[in-house]
Design goal:
25% strand; 24% helix; 4-stranded antiparallel beta sheet; alpha+beta; Jelly Rolls; globular; binds N-oxalylglycine
């Protein structure tokens, strides 16, 4: 296949990558993908971020829309919600739509919507252990986070840590050993079942940018 064609196909996510993603989510409920978004899609996301100003970012709230509150002891990042429209977001949202249809075929989830925001963590910021969705509520089903930090180093901290789902056992879900630790490196993408994994963002030592999205029903 022509390299150019390969790249064009890859913009819609190569079949082998999708297969691995499906298997990982089926087996373990989460997946870490270094190559889900193409290099050009990542560059376009970074371009879009650069076009935003500080006035587009707001201190992130916690909880459902109805009891939206801001508590800096729980999270200290600033967020900016994204909507399809700008040309530089086209490839990202096209990939998302492709994934939505794929998940619906594979898992019969009935995903209908997707919402996403940039989250910018200044040095010192973190996000304490939380769940993205509460079981039984018709809302977020799959979380998808892509990191946009070039030249990230281990000493920069800011790891995403996933904990096992211990909600059925006596032990406290928030005090167990980590299941997964992810450094927020350029292009790394993490997906997990929103109701199943308590997770946190460890304090970051460098400015940390992620694009976090949720497939919803
Ligand atoms: C969130 C979240 C994790 C990250 O925004 O709900 O958990 O690594 N983000 O940015
Ligand atoms: Mn979260």
């Amino acid at each position: 296949m022509l390299p150019q064609l390969l790249h064009k196909n890859a913009d819609m996510t190569a079949p082998a990558i999708l297969t691995r993603l499906t298997q990982d989510i089926e087996r373990q409920g989460y997946a870490v993908m270094p190559d889900l978004f193409t290099p050009s899609t990542l560059e376009q996301l970074a371009t879009h971020y650069q076009r935003l100003g500080s006035e587009d970012f707001h201190l992130a709230g916690i909880g459902r829309e109805s009891d939206h509150e801001i508590n800096r002891r729980v999270r200290a990042d600033k967020t900016c919600w994204l909507e399809p429209g700008p040309p530089e977001l086209f490839d990202y949202f096209a990939t998302i739509e492709h994934l939505r249809q794929h998940f619906n075929r594979q898992f019969f989830l009935g995903l209908r919507e997707f919402e996403c925001h940039f989250a910018c963590y200044p040095p010192g910021a973190f996000y304490r252990t939380h769940l993205d969705a509460f079981r039984g509520k018709p809302s977020r089903k799959i979380s998808l986070i892509v990191y946009l930090n070039r030249a990230w180093q281990a000493s920069d901290g800011g790891e995403l840590i996933l904990y096992p789902d211990n909600s059925d056992s006596e032990s406290c879900a928030w005090r167990t050993d980590p299941l997964l630790t992810v450094e927020p490196r350029w292009g790394t993408t993490v997906l997990f079942l929103s109701e199943d994994f308590p997770h946190e963002v460890r304090p970051t030592n460098a400015t940390r940018l992620s694009l976090t999205g949720w497939f919803r029903i």
